[in-house]
């Protein structure tokens, strides 16, 4: 898909963007979404599709009709809901059917998988148990990853400061593979856990290379795919990734607080979950109510509590849209949209900068626009129905979600931003305060 030219003439620029939208093979999917204003915050919460709404309505009707019998009599039945959605989702992350489960929240899944793999690394010998290694993270991570890992280390009587290997960024935006390799070489690392895409800058990491590096140094390789699931293709099984977690409310458009997902490579299928719960018990004997836990086959063993049907149902319809569009076509359009956005930022005054990698192969689905007045500019954009978000200290995040965003939308964001800045309209807003951004 070609990126429209950024012509110096505003009219020509608009004509080019319109022509690109007319030629877009995914353009018709926008009709299936309710999109509020010029919406560029799909990397925080995706828009509602008619498909997601219909699958939620269907679950409500099944509850009305069947009540408790819905666990067996609903179509599809609720008892196997998480496993069925996992199989449906597997192609989007390059997994085999039993390697994916839909369950919990991203943070809860980090807890159980970090704990499981860290214990596995340290149960192999008395020496390891007496002198456990570290978990490798980085200083640009989303905070919840560190909260969960530190909590699991404390639960094992370990000092998190001594058992975290933190890879530091040289530029405050990105992490290099060489820095990760150096950290692996210089430290006794048991588990590598990194994001696929950094939530601020949008840097896309090379999962294949990082997985190989982790394995070469005797560590498990895990990833947080929150900012790539649904917008970047993955090959988790073939790349040998040990485990991964992600959410579904961003690019997969499953709704606020939607149920999350996880992956566990089949080579690790014998690991006993560190956090066991009855929904991870093998289905065949689950209702025999045995007090001894028998793990389900595959990733389903990491389910803990009963699946929340109403939080999972919108994902069913949302996946229909994504699978119909095709993850490769979604990625192709995403690259074109973000390339265009990067080019357009170059037409703004010099006080604006792109904080994301320029090369599309190193960039996820959003672009970080940096400016000292990023917070007030973000607020001014929202007041004009251009929905973006702010991340401290100086980032306006713009995420053109491919299923419902076009090139004219991207142009509108930049032209509105230009107008706000040139008229100093952002100065009407207070400096940053607390609250949801």
UniProtKB/TrEMBL annotation:
Question: GO cellular component terms?
Answer: cytoplasm
Q: Per the entry, which co-factors are needed?
A: pyridoxal 5'-phosphate
| InterPro entries in the cross-refs | Aminotransferase_I/II_large, Kynureninase, PyrdxlP-dep_Trfase, PyrdxlP-dep_Trfase_major, PyrdxlP-dep_Trfase_small
Q: Which UniProt keywords apply?
A: Hydrolase, Pyridine nucleotide biosynthesis, Pyridoxal phosphate
Q: Where is this region: Disordered?
A: 1-21
Substrates-to-products reaction catalysed? L-kynurenine + H2O = anthranilate + L-alanine + H(+); 3-hydroxy-L-kynurenine + H2O = 3-hydroxyanthranilate + L-alanine + H(+)
Q: Where does the Aminotransferase class I/classII large domain lie?
A: 84-233
EC number(s) stated in the UniProt entry for this protein: 3.7.1.3
Q: What assembly does the database describe for this protein?
A: Homodimer.
- Protein's UniProt name: Kynureninase
Organism encoding this protein: Halosegnis longus
